[in-house]
Amino acid sequence: MSRTRTGTRTGTAPRVQPRRRIRIGCGAGFADDRIDPAVELAEHGRLDYLVFECLAERTVALAQLDRLRDPDAGYNEWLEERMEAVLEPCARQGTRIITNMGAANPTAAARVVTEVAHRLGLDGLRVATVTGDDVLHLVRGAQLPLLDGPHGSATANDLGETVVSANAYLGAPPIIEALAQGADVVVTGRVADPSLFLAPLMHEFGWPPTDWPLLARGTAVGHLLECAGQLTGGYYADPGTKDVPDLARLGFPLAEVAEDGSFTVTKVPGSGGQLTPATVTEQLLYEVHDPAAYLTPDVTADFSHAHLTHLAEDRVAVTGITGREPPTTLKTSVGYRDGFLATGEISYAGPGAVSRAREAARIVEQRLTAAELRVTEARYDLIGVDAVHRGADATAVEPPEVRLRVAARAPTHVQARRVGREVASLWLNGPYGGAGVTRETRENIAITSVLLPRELVMPSTAVQLTVAGAATP
Q1: Which of 260, 315, 326, 405 has an alpha carbon 20 to 30 Å from 156's alpha carbon atom?
Q2: 3-class secondary structure, 86
């Protein structure tokens, strides 16, 4: 695999050559993101690093369920396809990959990466795993206050055996260790999103782990890039108000970062979308409760004095970021079983569609109440009429068709299935013209959070080398 740094591939960590700027791109902003923009970055971004950020709050908990069913599962379902698409161009360009697609099973995910590398003839690739974010043993049964959710003053102990996962947000250090050991691909589980981008900057520039302004600037790089296409006009777009060109070919962003932490965000020339101070501003504030105190495991970043300079088309410079020491605790997402969710849908069309759909909803509601199924939090929505704006008046304009959706929670799978069955029974037992019934029942994994003293969380790093299809230490 071609590299832009010196050192052997047989044991000693490569010696990092000083460079003026590092180019980092984002190849995914969530689990099911597109793959072709990542390939575009790998081929034409002239990157030093390509990062795939694929974990939302609930993603790891759902992956833990998959792992409980199959010990070899629990990682991102698109991992193999993504690696098939980008490993070769990244190898050719000397680009290293960092990803949290390991989700609940980074070790199994790393095996997939090495298998793909061998199939592509990339023997000699170093793949690292970062583990230690799984802290279920510390959380289950502990008297740790729950930070959110409908729990009042409850603790993790009150959730009892319903808890299926507990994953602490790790920071940059274990990724830095993997890069120092020469890893070409780093596969992690739950790592704070900006830390995936901060780690290579700390590694390349030798930033001290207590230089809070520098770490805050690197965190700002990560925060802006982590949602991928959101920075280049996706989600920002509002036709007629905020028009964005060529969204079907939306290009994902990259950052050019200097050793002093100043940076410019941009995208591959000719790719779709746009990158402007407006798109940067929206992403900078995205999911930030307090711009002066953005909390991460590495630093408390202060974005409140950020300054954006529009340098050229699709090029925005960011300065004015500073920071201070991080919290003494690590946020930990706790996943727990919270009953079953059920949905049933049926369509009505033609004159009187709304009144027939409302009558159908009344029928189902009466049936579920009479059955004493302990169905809770039930909703009866007419999609296209009042599913978003509750209580909307549909009498002014009669839609030509409408779809009734019934959604509810129940304590058991058997009880939840009854919801979809009652909707399906409307075919012959409800108003005329019902059609297109769909129904689904699934277990609900809810998420809450606790704070763990950071000294209790022990991340670890392991690097393996792909040789003739076999992973060796």
Answers
A1: 326
A2: helix
